[in-house]
Amino acid sequence: MANKEAKKKVANVFNQVADAIETGQFGAKTKVGITTLGSEHGVEEIVKGAEMAHNKHQDLEVKLIGPDVDTELSVIYETDCEETAHDKMEELLQAGKIDACVTNHFNFPIGVSTVGRVVTPGLGREMLLATSTGSSATNRITAMVKNAIYGITAAKALGNENPSVGILNVDGARQVEQALKELKDNGYEINFSETVRADGGCVMRGNDLLQGSADIMVTDTLTGNLLMKVFGAFTTGGSYESLGYGYGPGVGEDYDQIINIISRASGAPVIAGAIRYAADAAQGELTKVAQQEFKAAKDAGLEEIIEDIESSNSAAEEEVSAPPAKTVDEEISGIDILTLDDAKAALWKEGIYAETGMGCTGPVVMVANEDEEEAMEILKENGFIT
Fold it and tell me: Which branch of life, at top level (predicted)?
């Protein structure tokens, strides 16, 4: 009996060697789990996506967590309960029985959010959306600053050592830009992208989304989530996500699991892409990269920058009276919408009459021609423009 078992083991080794020679894949395969419950398209759709990934990529092995199904894939844990599936998923990750997992409807702790991966329709470029689910912080600006680091982390785990970073033109974009540029000036490496629009800069517009002007597009999570749905389902009318790699892995400073998110509307092609993305994140040691990136960012003053952001946002505003009114005929742009009134108040405090408005490129402070130069200096000194 023992001799029979030994022969079986030797045969398995020879089979593995033969497979490795045939596929070019030597060493252990990356094991990716996937929970199969919760899809609007049924368990069969998730299994179909899992089979697509398993058959296409010789470097990974897909394990199912969910009800028993008719498939060549192994069901590593059988259950008909989503909550139990999530508990087992985390148990398997912690035990090292799977390297990463794909699931939906999973709640990350505050401080962890996912980096989505899409294919942009303009030029067919891949782009990371930082972030698409979860919450990096309770303060909006702090969260978006962290989202940039999460995006850089994911890009580096995918093998891009110098990813370009753009900031989507949403509320808070200018404050995020200032914070990230301060972080870069302090020594943290950020390769800012340039918008395709003529006015330039790293604040991105809709055109940039379609063309994939940046490797990483930084935005707030709710906007990122919406964009993921648009990029994934714009060819199908919205009920079936057919394009891309899903909502991505949860990234956090001390988060030690690789859990990639799909939505209930994700179809088999996106599920297959999400499994590939999860395997890429595991192979690129995403959690280790996150620790390295946060150490570098902290060495460049990340915590102090965040403290300044949150203290300035929570400080009580001083009551300032308007100086005598003037005709305002010059626009000063580059000010975030969330700090527009504060910028006006800073000028009033120095005796310069100003009004606020919306110009062609976004929020503006308007001043008289003779006050423009001094107003620019005051706004720069107070951090409203760069």
Answer: Bacteria
Determine if residue 248 is left, alpha or beta; phi over 0 gives left, psi from -120 to 50 gives alpha, anything else beta.
left
**Which residues pair with residue 118 across a beta bridge?**
127
Residue 5 lies in a domain: no
* Short-list 226, 251, 231, CA closest to 243: 231
Q: Are 351 and 308 in contact (CB under 8 A)?
A: no
Active site residue 360: yes
Give the pLDDT mean for 17-31.
66
User: pTM of the entire structure?
Assistant: 0.81
Q: Which residues pair with 356 in a beta bridge?
A: 365
Residue-wise over 105-130: b if at least 16 C-beta within 10 A, else e? bbebeebbbbbbbbbbbeeeeebbbb
Q: Which residue is catalytic, options 81, 101, 202, 360?
A: 360
pLDDT digits (tens, 9 = 90+) for 76-113: 999 999 999 999 999 999 999 999 999 998 889 889 99
**Residues in the chain, total:** 386
Look at residues 20, 11, 51 and name the one whose alpha carbon lies nearest to residue 34. Answer: 51
3 located within any domain: no
pLDDT score of 1? 45
Q: Residue 20: inside a domain, yes or no?
A: no
Arithmetic mean of pLDDT, 314-318? 49
Q: Which stretches of 59-204 are DSSP H helices?
A: 82-95, 140-157, 173-185
Q: Is 66 left (phi over 0), alpha (psi -120 to 50) or beta?
A: left
Question: Domain of 84?
Answer: 29-101
User: Which residues neighbour 108 within 8 Å (Cβ) at sequence distance 6 or greater?
Assistant: 114, 133, 134, 135, 250, 252, 255, 259
The sheet that has 354-359: what strands, in order across it? 330-332, 362-367, 354-359
CB atoms within 10 A of CB 210: 16
**Tokens at residue 146, please?**
């962290």
Domain count, the chain: 3
